[in-house]
């Protein structure tokens, strides 16, 4: 499921929980902590349920939710403030014959029992702010007590990191890809990025280049990417890629991109072209070594790419590598 869709689902879970909490309901807040094998949802997936079984969100393709809700209704789930349960493979997994994860999968779920008090209200407000804002936050939950605290995430990486006694859950806006300029590489980048779940924005002020471009679900703006970045500075989950070979467009984009919080900034070109661009950006754009160091020139992984599709693949692979903290 695309990350923009996942973000919308996460917001739906949070907003439902806030409504139910305001009505005085006790809540069970469930987060996928880890998956192994072919588990159907990735870490960080959310589900919230009330005691009467009404719920929003998903932990799997459906069988895990059904089993969990049935156990909760039957009183088979512990009433502790926090617990971790596992489905699938492993001696510690719940014995649930009706739950079948594909290919020997395993799913571990953090279950928090939230009373209708002000603490739960603050947790839900923090979730909403993180999903709507531009900063990647980290919720740290102590697994034996349920104590939690929020902090700004210091690095990108997986949505959930498990330590001995603590789960660190990263919460933030959907990953966004800003494509500066239309080119054959842009077309493939937009396709790859959308299939990977990115919110895609494409900017190019040149009318003629749009004639044969197929945007899919991308947001298309006929303006300079640098102007867009002035109005909408890149947040911490933004990648900015310049893909035209036109220095007038690419250079302006780089100058503006380094002023924001983008986790990835790259521009297409050979090593020699990149050296010339770096000198221009230093001389005319006023960028120092630190700013230049944030720009990947040439863009993407060194795969020996030749065709537009290969260059786009190398670009998106590098974006994913950095986003995952590799």
Automatic annotation (TrEMBL):
Lineage: Bacteria, Pseudomonadati, Pseudomonadota, Gammaproteobacteria, Oceanospirillales
InterPro entries tied to this protein: MoCofactor_Util/Proc, XdhC_CoxI, XdhC_Rossmann_dom
Name the record gives this protein: Xanthine dehydrogenase accessory factor
Ranges where the XdhC- CoxI domain occurs: 20-79
Coiled coil spans: none
Species for this entry: Halomonas cerina
Sequence ranges assigned to domain XdhC Rossmann in this UniProt record: 177-319
Any Pfam family: XdhC_CoxI
């Amino acid at each position: 499921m695309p990350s923009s869709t996942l973000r919308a689902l996460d917001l739906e879970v949070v907003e439902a929980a806030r409504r139910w909490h305001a009505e005085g309901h006790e809540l069970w807040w469930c987060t996928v902590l880890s998956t192994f094998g072919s588990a159907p949802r990735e870490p960080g997936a959310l589900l919230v349920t009330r005691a009467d079984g009404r719920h929003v969100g998903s932990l799997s393709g459906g069988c895990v939710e059904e089993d969990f809700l049935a156990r909760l209704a039957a009183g088979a789930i512990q009433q502790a403030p926090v617990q971790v349960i596992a489905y699938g493979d492993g001696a510690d997994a719940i014995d649930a014959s009706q739950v079948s994860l594909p290919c020997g999968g395993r799913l571990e779920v953090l279950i928090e029992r939230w009373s209708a008090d002000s603490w739960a209200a603050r947790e839900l407000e923090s979730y909403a702010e993180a999903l709507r804002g531009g900063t990647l936050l980290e919720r740290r939950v102590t697994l034996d007590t349920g104590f939690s605290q929020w902090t700004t995430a210091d690095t990108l990486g997986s949505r959930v990191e498990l330590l001995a006694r603590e789960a660190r859950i990263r919460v933030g806006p959907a990953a966004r890809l800003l494509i500066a300029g239309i080119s054959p590489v842009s077309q493939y980048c937009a396709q790859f990025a959308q299939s990977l779940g990115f919110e895609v924005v494409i900017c190019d002020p040149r009318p003629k280049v749009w004639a044969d471009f197929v945007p899919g679900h991308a947001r298309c703006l006929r303006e300079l990417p640098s102007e867009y970045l002035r109005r909408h500075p890149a947040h911490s989950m933004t990648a900015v890629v310049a893909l035209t070979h036109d220095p007038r467009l690419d250079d302006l984009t780089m100058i503006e991109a380094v002023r924001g919080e983008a986790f990835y900034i790259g521009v297409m070109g050979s090593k020699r072209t990149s050296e010339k661009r770096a000198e221009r950006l230093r001389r005319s754009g006023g960028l120092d070594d630190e700013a230049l160091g944030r720009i990947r020139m040439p863009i993407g992984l060194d795969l020996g790419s030749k065709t537009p599709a290969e260059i786009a693949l190398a670009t998106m692979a590098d974006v994913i590598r950095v986003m995952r903290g590799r």
